Automatic annotation (TrEMBL):
GO terms for cellular component: ribosome. InterPro entries: KOW (IPR005824), NGN-domain (IPR005100), NGN-like_dom (IPR006645), NGN_dom_sf (IPR036735), Rib_uL2_dom2 (IPR014722), Ribosomal_uL24_CS (IPR005825), Spt5_arc (IPR011590), Translation_prot_SH3-like_sf (IPR008991). Pfam families: KOW, Spt5-NGN. This is Transcription elongation factor Spt5. Gene3D superfamilies: 2.30.30.30, NusG, N-terminal domain (3.30.70.940).
């Protein structure tokens, strides 16, 4: 009886899934991901997840036990260029999925660019940061009179300094 239990416990170890990057034509990442998803369903390819990171153009990330599974899934797809050699670390991909909130990095006096809303494209200076509400109070710099506005934290980004 003990021999049967020991053999049941000593199963073949399962292969830990890894993350692989698939190069694609920029702008066609979602198309490639959807085709891969359909092939995974039809051909029962062991791909556990497909990630299309918005910050990186031209790449799709797949989670699979081996790179050849990813290569089989993209074979013949017009917009897929190939599997990038090497394995991605989970920490690196996690940073792409959980971007740091801009509000947490801002402090009074910082110059930001407004990226949405009626003041889009204008530069402004941070007066106050309200992290609980995810809002920023700004002084718009590109107007003739003092104008103070409150905008959502995802509507601004730190201004890039030219020449430095």
């Amino acid at each position: 009886m003990e021999q049967q239990e020991d053999s049941a416990v000593q199963r073949k170890p399962s292969v830990q899934p890894r993350l692989y990057a698939v190069r694609t034509v920029a702008g066609r990442e979602l198309d490639v991901a959807l085709i891969i998803e359909q092939r995974v369903r039809d051909e029962n390819i062991p791909i556990y997840s497909i990630i299309v990171p918005s910050q990186i153009r031209g790449y799709v990330i797949v989670e699979t036990p081996a790179a050849f599974h990813a290569a089989n899934a993209i074979q013949g797809i017009r917009y897929a260029k190939g599997v990038v050699p090497g394995v991605l670390r989970y920490d690196d991909v996690e940073r792409l999925l959980k971007p740091e909130a801009v509000v947490e990095t801002l402090k009074p006096g910082d110059v930001v660019e407004i990226i949405s809303g009626p003041f889009r494209g204008m530069k402004a200076q941070v007066v106050r940061v309200l992290p609980g509400k995810n809002e920023v109070v700004l002084n718009v710099l590109e107007v003739e009179y003092p104008l103070q506005i409150t905008v959502p934290g995802d509507s601004v980004r730190p201004a890039r300094e030219r020449g430095s």
